[in-house]
Write a structure and sequence with these properties.
This protein has 289 residues and is α/β, with parallel strands linked by helices. The protein contains eleven helices and eight strands. The protein folds into two domains: 200 residues, Spore Coat Polysaccharide Biosynthesis Protein SpsA, Chain A (Alpha-Beta Complex), CATH 3.90.550.10; 82 residues. An eight-stranded mixed β-sheet has the order 3-2-1-4-7-6-8-5, with helices on both faces. Helix 1 links the parallel strand 1 and strand 2. Helix 5 packs across helix 11. The radius of gyration is 20 Å and the shape is globular. The N and C termini lie far apart (46 Å).
Length: 289
Amino acid sequence: MTARVCVVIPAYNAAHTLGDTLTALQTQAGAPSTELIVVDNASSDHTTAVAQRFGALVLSETRRGPSAARNRGLFATDAEIVAHCDADTVPSRRWLASIVAPFKDPACVLVAGNTQCYPGGTPAERYVAQSGLYDTPRAIGRESFPFAPSLNMAVRRDAAVLVGGWAEEMMTGEDVDFSHRIVQRFGTSIVYAEGAMLYHRTRSDRAALVHQARTYGAGAAHLYRRYPDQLAWDLQKTRSLIDQMIRRSIARVSTRLARVLGSGESDSVEYADYHWLWTSNFWWGFFTA
């Protein structure tokens, strides 16, 4: 009998977090018949052993990148709906029931869940939580290229197959591309499932955050090359970027100065510093990709 839902988890060197993800998936309330696939993306740790211990179907994908891993799961299942969460997330108890509920409407094709960051214990974690980087309503509400973040989403399998699956040449920004092709092909909007909440472990240190910002910038550059007619760089974008960098540089300096003078808060200094760090490295990744 065909399972109505398949959860596909791409996993690379995720042995230390995957167990929490799978534990949460095994205790879902009100979930439909579900197939669980973990795609080991050429890990060098015990990711496969952890997944097998929890009874997941483990597939191997040697082509590196989350898109290749998700495609491996997509084309291995015949479930009606394919849901995705990442191997460093912990779904809430009704995540699965909530993310598949909108598909009761035959017009629903793509659903985005509600992602929350774990409370930040480091400056990098606090910045990500405050910045709205994983704010789903903001992602699906974008005027251009709205998207369902890939760490917490679900899609009709037939629709995903019809658009050719995930773009395997994209290491980041692949969820923006995938969502765009779904929206364009089916003339649909992305449904927000607020109750489909999961918790995400974000980058915990400065170096990891710099790397993430640069890879996200490179992903954005790939989108510009992939859609030159819709994402052409122009003078207005250049001016907007210069203005953004100036404002964030000024904020970084002014909050530090205010702190020295005794009228500023340390939280403001930290946020301004990391906001500038993220922005400068994102654009470094964009222009060097």
